[in-house]
């Protein structure tokens, strides 16, 4: 009986030591504080990468222009000319009709309608041709027709 009591007392005295060791092993596996230097550095690097990606995509978008429209449609932009920083003149072709349109912030206005697209020599303007020269030719023709 004495042997049982001795063993029991030994187990009870060792049990708190084992539980303390178990608690130490559990606390050793807990994550590091989220405010630690490594976590803050990792967050900062991730944030900088995202900001760099946004600027790179903006540069690419500005460099290579907008993506082409999905559907061709019946409207073709033949040419355009910037008059001021926020104002443009655009020559459009809709079917056999050409439209000279002024575009400004909050406003689009038809400046002139050219109905003579079917006549010989009035084919669609190639992109390589200068817009200003073609615009002058069209305006001269219209002035001649109105003067007669």
Concise synopsis of the structure shown:
With 148 residues, this protein is of the alpha+beta class.
How would the blueprint of this fold be written?
Blueprint: H1 2-28, H2 37-64, E1 75-84, E2 87-94, E3 97-104, E4 107-114, H3 131-147
Antiparallel strand pairs: 1-2, 2-3, 3-4
Number of helices: 3
| Order of H and E elements | HHEEEEH
Spatial strand sequence of the major β-sheet: 1-2-3-4
Low-confidence parts lasting 5 or more residues at pLDDT below 50?
A: none
Shape: rod-shaped
Task: Give a quick account of the main beta sheet: strands, pairing sense, barrel closure.
Answer: 4 strands, antiparallel
Count of folded domains? 2
The number of distinct β-strands equals: 4
> Termini separation (Å)?
135 Å
| Helix content class | 40-55%
Classification by helices and strands: alpha+beta
Q: Tell me the Rg in angstroms.
A: 39 Å
Mean pLDDT: 75
Strand content: 15-25%
What features would you highlight for this structure?
148 residues; alpha+beta; 2 domains; four-stranded antiparallel β-sheet; 3 helices
């Amino acid at each position: 009986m004495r042997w049982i009591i001795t063993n029991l007392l030994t187990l009870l005295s060792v049990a708190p030591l084992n539980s303390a060791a178990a608690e130490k092993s559990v606390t050793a596996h807990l994550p590091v504080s989220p405010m630690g230097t490594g976590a803050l550095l990792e967050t900062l690097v991730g944030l900088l990468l995202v900001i760099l990606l946004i600027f790179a995509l903006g540069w690419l978008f500005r460099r290579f222009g907008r993506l082409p429209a999905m559907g061709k449609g019946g409207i073709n932009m033949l040419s355009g000319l910037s008059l001021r920083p926020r104002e443009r003149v655009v020559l459009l072709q809709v079917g056999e009709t050409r439209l000279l349109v002024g575009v400004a912030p909050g406003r689009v206005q038809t400046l002139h309608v050219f109905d003579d697209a079917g006549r010989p020599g009035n084919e669609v303007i190639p992109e390589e041709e200068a817009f200003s020269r073609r615009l002058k030719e069209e305006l001269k023709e219209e002035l001649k027709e109105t003067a007669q």
